[in-house]
Amino acid sequence: MGYIDDKTYEPESTGGNFMKLVDGENKIRIVTPTYYFRKHNSQEGGKFKSVICIGENCPLCAEGDRAKSRYAWVIIDRKDGQAKILEVGWSVYEQMLSLAKDEEYGDLNTYDLKIKKSGEGLGTSYAVVASPKKTDITKAELDLVGKADIDLDKVFGGGKYTKKEEPEVKEPFKVSLAWSEKQADLGDESDMPDDFLTGKED
Ligand SMILES: [Zn+2]
Prior knowledge:
By secondary structure, the chain is of the alpha+beta class. It has a domain at 24-158: Replication Fork Single-Stranded Dna Binding Protein (Replication Fork Single-Stranded DNA Binding Protein, Alpha-Beta Complex). The chain contains seven helices and seven strands, in the order E-E-E-H-E-E-H-E-E-H-H-H-H-H. It has helices at residues 59-62, 90-101, 139-148, 152-156, 159-165, 170-183, 194-198; strands at residues 24-30, 35-44, 47-52, 68-77, 83-88, 111-118, 125-134. Strands 1, 2, 3, 4, 5, 6 and 7 form a seven-stranded antiparallel beta sheet that branches. It is globular and about 45 Å long. The two termini are 37 Å apart. The structure holds zinc ion. Residues 40, 53, 58, 60-61, 67 line the site of zinc ion (ZN).
């Protein structure tokens, strides 16, 4: 926090747009290698919440919650031509994997993919179809991806990055110690207003 120079300031990358798979056809081109991570899904007060598993020392794993495998890429959404993040679970990746391992298709970034979504809720299913045409990613597309500046490791790397930003434990302890020393100088209870002693508010 502090003063910044507006003219030279460059905002931090927000991690990029996520692609939302819509009903019907979603055509994409994968640009990066597959990024693997794990995620905990839980419901808190009726709200769906997902937390990236930090692996070793993960508090949710310690509680016995099982994290699910997730797979992500930077992709180009063929619908609007934008670079986005696509995150999928095993049911989609499994199909991509068999394309990647099929020697008639191969590397996932050498052809477009269509992900067809159908059904709703728990009945949602996805079918992945590869475009029969192999095409190179163009220079313009690479520039677009470069500009989007999406670092999957930063987005999905779990505690790796956020941990560093957490303040050290020592600091708040020192502060609270100083605060309690001050309290000792405030005089005795008779100097305090009645409502403070009874805990009543007005
Ligand atoms: Zn975990």
